[in-house]
Amino acid sequence: MRLLFCCSAAAILIPRLCAPPGETDGLKDLILRFRSAPIELQVRGLLSLVEQGQTKGHLDEKALIEECFQRAAGAQRDLPLEMIGSAITEDPDYLVVRASRQGLDRLSLQSWAVRLMLPRDKAKARELFALMALPPYRRLSCADRLMDDPDRYYEALEGLLKIAFSAKDRADGLHLALIRAELSKVTSPFQLEPVVKRLTALDWTSAEYAQIVPAIGASLSNLRVDDRTFSAVARTLYGLIPRVEEFGLRARAAGVAADPIALGIRQFLAAHFPAERCADTAAAPKPPPEGVRMLPKPSHPQFEDESLPEVANYFNYKLRFAAYLPSTDLPPLVPEQMKPAKLLGGMEAKKLYWSNERQITLLAKQLLWVPTQDRHFTDQERATADWQRRAAEYRQAINDYRRTEGQPAESYFLHKVGLTMALWGLMPEGPVRVEVLTDVVRLLAGTDKYEVGLDLWVLGARDVLERARRGRLDRTVAPEVLEALRQSGDDVLALLAATPSYL
Fold it and tell me: Distance between alpha carbon 359 and the CA centroid of its chain, in Å?
């Protein structure tokens, strides 16, 4: 990833908009601030101005939105990520997911621009959507824990389907042509699940269901993906299968046969269960340790054959029957079809890199809780020399915390920011509290945004702002924190401090 700042070359390629004389000085100042920021924050700030009505009557909003759409193509991250399984808050992958979900990626920003364009120029919104490339399916290994989340793309698609087509367009089937085109692009369950979710949220006529159902069925039948992708979205009765099942039931209620969807589910499952599988998703369950007694599994008429995976049982005992989804019964899936051709590796466990974790944890407990008593220190107790000594030791431990070999830069950065601000929140008013705040601002300003990635760096800065709100009844950021950020010497920190409601 690379960090892109607005520069004279970019300004030549995408001309800046000139505000009319009636524009307020405050709006001019905000626009100038945003235009000097990294691309992601620039686009986010300008689109926020449009969404909040600040630019109405002062700027050519359609031109500004289109400019933001084009600039968003230079964002470091292409789309948000999602975690497969669970993780603790210190997990490096969890931090990456949190950062990616701030809406600073290319797909989220361009989707936002399309949705803002819709009420202003429907034809232009459709044109921009056609330019908003859907990232290709990224094949995962069994060690991978992060998957792509293209839902923002389909959020824009849903907006178009709601209002972008006139009555004549709909009579000509243009909206259905768009749906079929999007479904034909689907190459992963990560894509099919959100598009079906969006389609299910809309109302369709019988004639429209009759065209959409076969397209969904064809997408299901043609999907061929790795096991990590398959298992994350379709191996259980969560995710893809209930999504397409619900759409099929709605179609059937409208008088349209859902056979293509039922058959597509069967072909999708039949193709993936006997393929190469990951050891942690396809291996037989281990017997309980000696002496451990397991409770019997309650019987359920839909899951009678324990030799089959759960979702295959669900197909056999419910989805394949004419009384439920298709118009005629489909053949069941048999155990011989479910055996993996080969078991591959398992998911990689991420190491938590804290060089002096035990020391920091022990010191933190000594600052929070009164020894032998189940309560926090009072303000008066935190003013004692003994508590101040422990706080100094904790601060020194944080300052001594260094990035260890193999530790991701973002993990080290976000941990250190959080630890320092936790100490700031505990410190009573006084010179030492100011010094701790100086520590964290210096860390933010001195961290290479290129190395950790802009969205991760912004996450660290936002963590500072959020911690500075805690304990304040009006939920505003403590004034001394905003002032410290303004005086940091870092233009982006100063921007975040000056425009928190936009960024």
Answer: 33
- What are the beta bridge partners of residue 432? none
With 0-12 / 13-18 / 19 or more C-beta atoms within 10 angstroms meaning exposed / middle / buried, residue 293 is exposed
Residues 273 and 374 in one domain: no
**Considering the domain boundaries, does residue 96 fall inside one?**
yes
Instruction: Please give the Cα distance from 439 to 428 (Å, whole number).
Output: 16
Residue 409 domain flag: yes
Distances (CA, A) of 291 to 136, 286, 287, 297: 49, 14, 11, 18
Query: What span, in angstroms and rounded, lies between the C-alpha atoms of 338 and 274?
Result: 5
Per-residue pLDDT of the chain (503 residues; tens, 9 = 90+): 444 433 333 332 333 444 444 446 789 989 999 999 999 999 999 999 999 999 999 999 999 999 999 999 999 999 999 999 877 776 788 889 999 999 999 999 999 999 999 999 999 999 999 999 998 999 999 999 999 999 999 999 999 999 999 999 999 999 999 999 999 999 999 999 999 999 999 999 999 999 999 999 999 999 999 999 999 999 888 899 999 999 999 999 999 999 999 999 999 999 999 999 999 888 766 666 777 665 665 555 555 666 788 899 999 999 999 999 999 999 999 988 889 999 999 888 776 655 566 778 788 888 888 877 778 899 899 999 999 999 999 999 999 888 888 888 888 898 889 889 989 999 999 999 999 999 999 999 999 998 899 999 999 999 999 989 887 888 889 899 999 999 999 999 999 999 887 87
Least Cα distance to 337 among 309, 310, 314, 318 occurs for 309
* 133: three-class secondary structure by DSSP: coil
274 CB-near residues (< 8 Å, 6+ apart):
337, 338, 339, 340, 341
Q: Give the pTM.
A: 0.88
**CA–CA separation, 195 and 276 (whole Å):** 27
Q: How many domains does the chain have?
A: 3
Residues 336 and 429 occupy one common structural domain: no
